[in-house]
Amino acid sequence: MTGTTGQISRTAFARNQWYVAAYGREIGRELLARTILNEPIVFYRTQDGGEAVALADRCVHRRYPLSAGRLDGDTLVCGYHGFTYDTTGTCVSVPGQKRVPRTARVRSYPVVEQDSLVWVWIGDPESADPDAVPRAAHLADPAWRTVGGMETVECDYRLLVDNLLDLSHETYLHGGYIGTPEVAETPIVTEVDEGAGTVRVSRHMDDAACPPFYARSTGIEGRITRWQDIEYHAPCLYLLHSRIAPRGVLPEPDGSDPNAFHVEITYAVTPSTDRRVYDFWCVSRDFAQDDEDVTAFLHDLNHTVVMQDVDALDLLQRSLDTEPEGYQELSINIDTGGLAARRILTRLAAEGEPQPAHAPAAAR
Amino acid sequence: MSGEHTAEVYRIAWVAGTDTLHGVCHCGAERTARDPVEMWEWMLAHPVGHDREIT
Ligand code: FES
Ligand SMILES: [Fe+2]
Ligand SMILES: [Zn+2]
């Protein structure tokens, strides 16, 4: 790469990482099918402990999707010929005969349920460290009121990462919703913590117009001080700490911030296939907790905004797919954070490749 | 909520009122540039090229 031009490389997944597979509330006694990093997986919850289980969604017999079968207690019965699997993926019975072939097992995946999210580990199970799951504690904290959803986008997951790390697009793609001119105009500070695998992008607007998203939810009339502090824990978790206050109102010297409104915008970016990504989104607020109108408004407006991104990224991917090999991009200052994220993703993907001397996953 | 920092932190500030980027490597080396691609290449090559500083 020379100068300002460059190009996005072939899709490569960082396998030795935790990914959000579902909200905890989505996993129950109904079988849930999700494809993560090109691997079809079926999820369910056990009867007694209520533990989330993740098994490969292909029966060893004729590869029928297990998600089309049914639960019998804590075992999963294939809907085609009845091969039955326990929560570890071991086949415990087959029809018509006593002997179960020793090799009859499907893969089970390590799972962590934390902060209302269910995380799954696709890579080498030996490297799966539950303590390495990044936190999003506000999602399960009663001090925050959270709304959320999930959309699928038909694009390389890195296009969504790019989108989230460069919020200048709010001004153009989300103008009149969450964008105002000041977002694109205000310089950013970008920090990369190579060891932790995090990218931080801060944009502090001292004097900005208040977009409808915040005007209607906070009741602020007039101009605002608006801070956006992004914390991206590659590859999956994206936190946007958003602080809104009447213009000129700053946190107290002791660090408390009673006169501002705080919103935590959370995204989980989970690659499904090379051309599909699960886009989990949440909006958590520390004000108007019991105001159901505000809850519905923030949910609906953010859903509209997410769909604007979904449509744009679907379009962008279709367009990129018609480009000849070796197309060029051009990066400018607003891309400083996105470029950093791409680089970390490339490094994490290389580290997740099976290799004899196993490189350690990113230190936490 | 914020993760801990490790020792290897790179920082690029877009200088207010200008088109200039100001970068600080984790070793303390500094540089200004007008192109984020060039800036990341310089930083991540640490310590290679730190001596041919452009300001
Ligand atoms: S395909 Fe599952 S039992 Fe035959
Ligand atoms: Fe967006
Ligand atoms: Zn250096």
Notes on the structure:
The complex is a heterodimer of chains A (364) and B (55). Chain A is of the alpha+beta class. Chain A has two domains: 18-122, Rieske [2Fe-2S] iron-sulphur domain (Rieske Iron-sulfur Protein, 3-layer Sandwich); 136-350, Naphthalene 1,2-dioxygenase Alpha Subunit, Chain A, domain 1 (Alpha-Beta Complex). In chain A, 20% of the residues lie in helices and 32% in strands. Chain A has helices spanning 157-165, 169-173, 181-185, 212-218, 292-321, 336-352; strands at 5-6, 18-23, 32-36, 39-45, 52-56, 70-72, 75-77, 84-85, 91-93, 111-114, 117-121, 145-153, 189-193, 198-208, 224-233, 237-246, 261-273, 276-285, 329-330. A seven-stranded antiparallel sheet of chain A has the order 12-18-17-16-15-14-13. Chain A has a four-stranded antiparallel sheet with strand order 6-7-8-9, with no helix packed on it. In chain A, β6 (70-72) and β7 form a beta hairpin. The longest helix of chain A has 30 residues, at 292-321. The longest helix of chain B has 9 residues, at 36-44. Chain B has a three-stranded antiparallel sheet, with helices on one face. Chain B has one helix at residues 36-44, and strands spanning 9-14, 21-24, 30-33. Chain B is 16% helix and 25% strand. In chain B, a hairpin with a 5-residue loop joins β2 (21-24) and β3 (30-33). β13 (189-193) of chain A pairs antiparallel with β1 of chain B. Chain A: This is Aromatic ring-hydroxylating dioxygenase subunit alpha.
Please describe the topology of this protein:
The complex is a heterodimer of chains A (364) and B (55).
Chain A: E1 5-6, E2 18-23, E3 32-36, E4 39-45, E5 52-56, E6 70-72, E7 75-77, E8 84-85, E9 91-93, E10 111-114, E11 117-121, E12 145-153, H1 157-165, H2 169-173, H3 181-185, E13 189-193, E14 198-208, H4 212-218, E15 224-233, E16 237-246, E17 261-273, E18 276-285, H5 292-321, E19 329-330, H6 336-352
Antiparallel strand pairs in A: 1-19, 2-11, 3-4, 4-5, 6-7, 7-8, 8-9, 10-11, 12-18, 13-14, 14-15, 15-16, 16-17, 17-18
Helix pairs in contact in A: 1-6
Chain B: E1 9-14, E2 21-24, E3 30-33, H1 36-44
Bound molecules: FE2/S2 (inorganic) cluster (FES), fe (ii) ion and zinc ion.
Fe (ii) ion binds at residues 163, 169, 173-174, 309 of chain A.
InterPro entries (chain A): Cholesterol_7-desaturase, Rieske_2Fe-2S, Rieske_2Fe-2S_sf, VanA_C_cat
Protein name (chain A): Aromatic ring-hydroxylating dioxygenase subunit alpha
GO molecular function, one term (chain A): metal ion binding
